[in-house]
Amino acid sequence: MENTEVEKLQVKEVEKSKVFIIVEIIEYVPNAVVIKTIIKKTTGNVSVISIDAGENLTERLSRFDNFIQIIEGCAEILIDDQLLTLETGQSIIIPANSKNTINANERFKMISTIIKSGYE
């Protein structure tokens, strides 16, 4: 992340069998990326992420597929050399072993689900 403090808030998994509204369990922090882990297992994890305008998740090469769903706002996602804009309600799977960058031209919230099994 460029010139930003990343605030990683490790939380207990969301209470099972209890209704919650995903977009309300994370807040925006000025000039920051906030990540809350909802479920963390050896086979993968689910996180909710808020990214303030002007911030980004710097380019990375993920070894696993990553399902992204925008739950508020609009995100710019670069996968290899393909630039995509996703809006609230839209989703994409970032394929394993592809370079990707996620930019916030405006602030947004997303769910990231990484599956670590099935690559044997």
From TrEMBL:
It comes from the Bacteria. InterPro entries: RmlC-like_jellyroll, RmlC_Cupin_sf. Transmembrane segments: none annotated. This is Cupin domain-containing protein.
